[in-house]
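Duplicate of earlier report; DUF3456 domain-containing protein input re-posted below.
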Amino acid sequence: MRLLAYVTVVLLTVAVKGKKNIEEEEYGVRYATECEVCKLVTKEVAEQLNAKDSSEVIETGYNMDSKKKKTKYNKSELRLVETLEEVCRGMLDYRIHKERQDSTRWAKKMSQTFQTLHNLVNKGVKVELGIPMELWDEPSAEVAHLKTQCEGFVEDNEEAISKWYFGEQQASLQEDVCKKVVAKHQCLSEPYGEEVESPPTPTDAKGDLSRTATDREDL
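Output:
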C-alpha cells in the first residue's frame, strides 16, 4: 500500500509539472516562482504598512471597560491585520513583461509590448489580437494566479510576518522572511520591475508590431 501511495504521488507530481511545461511552451504562461512570490508580497506589505503610517493612538478593549488600553497605531495589531487583508488585492496591479526573463518581468506598469500596441491604435493602425481591446489591460493568467499565490503565502507565513512586525525590525521584512522560508532566493538581489526600462519593441515600416504568440500577456 505504501508503494502504491508513493507511486501515485510521483505520478501526480509529474502530471502537474507536465501541465506547467505545456502551458509555458504552448502559451508562454510562466507563473511566479516561490522566490518571486515572497519578493512581491513582502514588497507590497511594506508599502502598505508605510501608507498606513500614523502617529494616532488607538484604544482597545470592551465598551464597558473603563480601563481601555491605549496603543500606538503604528505598532498595533489592527494595522497589521488591515494590511494583510488588503495586500493580495495589490497583486492584480502587476503586469507581465515577457521581454524580460528574471523577476523584473513583474512590474506595476504596462509592458513595452502593450504600450506599443496602444500607440499603434492611437495612430489609427488596426491591431488584431483575437481579444477585444477592452480586455487588453485585464490581469493576465499569471497575475490572477499571483493573487492566489499571495493568499497562500500570507496564510502560511503570517506568524513569521507578525514576528517581524512586532519585533525590532532591524532587517527589512523581505530579508527577514524570504531568506528563511524560500530555498532559492537569487531573485531577491534583482531590482524591482518598476526600476527597469524595457528596450524599444521593434516595428516594421508599416507600423505593425513584430511579435509572437508568446508575447501576448493576456491569454
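The CA atoms of residues 53 and 93 lie 22 Å apart.

Merging into the original ticket.
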